[in-house]
Amino acid sequence: MKNSRYLAAGFTTLAIAGLALGATGIASAGTLPTTGNTIAMTVANDSNQTIYLQGSDNPYGSWIAGPPQSVAPHSSRIITATNNDPRGLGVDATYSLPDGTGTAVFMANDYSNSTDIDGTRTTGPNAGRFSISSWIDTTYPDMNVTYHLSTS
Fold it and tell me: What pLDDT, on a 0 to 100 scale, did the predictor assign at position 148?
């Protein structure tokens, strides 16, 4: 009788530890750090063709969820970055235009004295056929910005 009580107590302890560990994983999944600066960029591809990553830059921080290799037509992906520099953070991700003739550059600058998307643009011989609309939802220290790439 005594052994079964110890066995039950052991199983209960393991079950509680497993629940606590599982809850910790759920709480931290998909969340941004609470210290430092963060940028969350939602890149929406409103065109009929996949866009492909050509390059990205995050020289003063690290990627939480780096730019994906591609963004499918009529879908969006979230890119996140962070650093601990109190002055701020700037990042960019460059994708091919849907027709392959140029690039779409998505920039985010989140600094203590300015939050902007300056430098966001399309390039190449057919750049005028595409447009990027964007808006900033929140600013320094935790910038959230959304971009929509579409055919003009």
Answer: 98
